[in-house]
Specification:
Elements lengths: L3 E7 L4 E7 L10 H4 L9 H12 L10 E5 L4 E5 L10 H13 L2 E2 L8 E4 L2 E4 L6 E2 L3 H18 L4 H14 L3 H7 L17 H9 L2
Antiparallel strand pairs: 1-2, 2-4, 3-4, 5-8, 6-7
């Protein structure tokens, strides 16, 4: 199932990413109400485009691509190409970025590690089509839990790598202590039922560490 198509082209002095927002056409999304227990996910291509536009055009210091142009009828957006690689996204960089996102009152919803890209300047969020502005802290807790889960699978066979990710993230994410108090409570913790067994100890250690 492809939700968005990404194409890159080169202009005279810069690269441009064209993103086309596709409609959901898979039976898998019949279970979307289940996911909405955790977060108010947008399903339609129009809604996802609008959410991403609102987030990317928000006037703040969050590291994110610039929007060059968009077409709501074609459901397309041209935006800045960010040089970098997800492999450089350690816990420290993602912790700093998620801190700035949550500090500005936004939640991502789809906060998996693949939606970040990192370079020497830090981490950037490159997919924000589920982002909303909300004062509901549980959506932020969901962001943290889902990011940690995705980092666990990204480091599936690398226990040390996952442990280091958690160490870096917990030091740089400014709301970590608040998250610790609630990490094993509420629906946002249910995602850890899918945590790889080999990473459970590192997760428990990071959450309980004071």
């Amino acid at each position: 199932m492809v939700l968005s198509q990404i194409l890159m082209r080169e202009e005279a002095d810069h690269k441009v990413i064209r993103k086309k927002y596709n409609s959901f056409n898979s039976y898998k999304w019949l279970i979307s109400p289940l996911f909405r227990v955790f977060y108010p996910f947008a399903i339609s291509s129009k809604s996802r485009l609008e959410r991403e536009l609102n987030f990317l055009n928000s006037g703040n210091e969050i590291k994110k691509p610039k929007v060059y142009s968009f077409d709501t009828s074609l459901k397309e957006m041209d935006r800045e190409y960010i040089e970098g690689d997800v492999e450089y996204c350690d816990g420290s960089k993602t912790g700093k970025l998620l801190s700035s996102i949550h500090k500005e009152g936004y939640s991502l919803g789809d906060s998996k590690l693949d939606n970040f890209i990192c370079n020497q300047e830090g981490a950037y969020i490159i997919d924000s089509e589920q982002a909303i502005k909300s004062d509901k802290k549980r959506y932020n807790y969901w962001d943290v839990s889902f990011l940690i889960l995705s980092a666990a699978y990204y480091n599936y066979s690398n226990k040390i790598g996952f442990k280091r990710f958690l160490e870096g993230f917990s030091k740089e994410y400014i709301y970590w202590q608040d998250y610790q108090k609630r990490a094993i409570k509420g629906i946002y913790s249910l995602v850890f039922l899918f945590m790889p067994l080999q990473h459970l100890y590192s997760l428990k250690e990071a959450i309980s560490k004071r």
